Each structure stands twice: as structure tokens, then as C-alpha cells.
């Protein structure tokens, strides 16, 4: 498929393509977008999905600001480097329990791979999707595929032709009906074939947050990605440990996994660095004394147990109080019984309680 002629000024749409020159050894010219192209937008609207880039920003705004210390360790991990640089490793699954920093890792990798796409001497493509169980449009597998299609097509008009062909053959229902997952997957595969000269990164965060009867079908399609999509297509997914995923995504020469509990030392080092940055930010923001700063830092290091979410929740709680009440609040938090699910339930409840204005003033 010949790519639509587009002007290229050496920049890329966020999260997307870039190259030095006007084209790569594939079928599509990279670099243009259709910000003003009614043709492209007409067919993208059929997907009825919000730009995944905007969703990622919203999710991160809720979770906490992204700090490099929370994800930089993974760049040196041998399994990750093999996935990123190798020719046969097409699928990497990062799994870990709640609060282990999976979303922050993924968001950090989006930033890094976006930069790679902008500066690569070859052609690099990036598309991603962040699942959220609390949002109906972000917890089904068809939305995942739609989001990946959207980001690829938004950056290269000619890829929209694949949506057009499906629409002309079966109308809008092909994107919403009972067979929508397979139709959309075929569209995604066709797009990837057109990009066979590029390295294409496809990232999906929070698979465990999907609540969809088509979930197992999606996993089977994903597990076959090395067979159905030629070229250097690299999938990276994150989730909590789920047996349904374990049964399908088994390690072999094409698939690998990183278990955050096994990488406890690296995760703990990341958490320690994260604590340092968070405490320093709170010290500056709340004008803490050195004594208060040291007490908070020691408390977090002693109790975090390699859990980013715990650090985030405690810091969110502490920033609601004047400095003279911080130590009292730490005493209250210490009284909570630590444990698995009960710890998280109680911690979430305490930290997210509304604080009366009189206690803050």
C-alpha cells in the first residue's frame, strides 16, 4: 500500500514515528499526520475511542507524578534488553502484585521509546494503551486493539485505508458487533504488515483490569503474534499475576517474562530512590525541618516493603497536614496491622479519608 504524501519536518506526533529521511524500507512513508485531514479523521471516529495518549496522562495524574527512579532499573534488566534489542523475542510480560510500580514502569517506557522514535536513525513506531477497570471503555479487549490502531493510524494517514475497507464491506457494526475483536485484530495485523520495515512497539498496561468475555481470545491472538505479524513487532504487557495469562503466555524463544517479586532487589532499589525523591519534594513543598524530613524518610524506608503504591499513598496523606502534625500521623499509620489484602484495604481507606479543613489550616 502506497503511503499518502506528507510533508516531514523531522518531528513526530507524540508516541509515534520518526526517521532520518523521507521513508524507510517498508511500504509506508512515515512522518506525516492528518491533524487537518478529514479523510483520516472520518474513519478514526468509527473507533469511538479517546486518544490513548490523553488517557495515559489522566491515569498518571491520579496515580502520582512519574519519577524516573521508579522505573529506570528495568532498562538494565537482561530480559528487558533481550526483548528490546533481540530479533526473536516478540512478547514480554511484566507481572507483579499491587503497588509494585507496573504502571509507572510502563509510563516511563512510553517516554523512553517515544524519544527513541523521535531520534532513531531507522524507523521506529510506538503505540500503547492503559487499561482501567473503573472505566467501562478502558476495561475491554476491543478497546485495547482500537487504541493501538488509533495511535498508529493517527500518525500515518494511509493506514486508515484498512479501516475503510472493513467499513465498506460491513458497515459500522464490524467495529462493534460480536466479531469486532477479530475484525479489529485483522486491521491491526494489516497495519503492521505495512510497517514491516520498522521496529514497532505495542505496549498494554494493566491486562488484569480487563473484564471481558473475549479476554481469553485476546490472549490467544497475542500469544500468536510472532507468527501472524512479520518484522520486528514487539509487544510488552503488564498485569498482576493471573493464571489465565500464565496458561497462555508461556516463556519460550519468542516470549519472556519479568516477575517483579523475583526482581525484589531491583524493585526495592527503585523504591528507595523513589522515596528519596518524594521526601525531598515534600520537604520543599511543605517546608519541613530536617528532623521531620529524616523521620519521614526513615519511616518510609522501613515500611515500604518494595511497594511503590504504599509510598505514594502515605505521601499523599502526609502532604495534607501541617509539618507539626506529621509525626502524629505517622504514629497513627504505624498502628495499622500490616498484611496482604487487609493491609491494602485499610491503608487505602485511611489515606483517602477526607481531612477536615480545620486540621489542615
Short description:
By secondary structure, the chain is α/β, with parallel strands linked by helices. It has helices at 38-44, 52-63, 78-85, 102-119, 141-155, 160-170, 180-194, 215-223, 225-228, 243-248, 264-286, 290-303, 308-318, 326-334, 341-352, 357-360; strands spanning 91-95, 124-130, 199-205, 232-239, 255-259. The protein has two domains: 38-259, Rossmann fold (3-Layer(aba) Sandwich), CATH 3.40.50.300; 264-360, no CATH class.
Model description:
Residues 1-36 and 354-361 have low confidence and may be disordered. With 361 residues, this protein is of the alpha/beta class. It has helices at residues 38-44, 52-63, 78-85, 102-119, 141-155, 160-170, 180-194, 215-223, 225-228, 243-248, 264-286, 290-303, 308-318, 326-334, 341-352, 357-360, and strands spanning 91-95, 124-130, 199-205, 232-239, 255-259. It folds into 2 domains: 38-259, Rossmann fold (3-Layer(aba) Sandwich); 264-360, no CATH class. A 5-stranded parallel beta sheet has the order 2-3-4-1-5, sandwiched between helices. Helix 5 (141-155) packs parallel to helix 7, helix 11 (264-286) packs parallel to helix 13 (308-318) and helix 13 packs parallel to helix 15 (341-352).
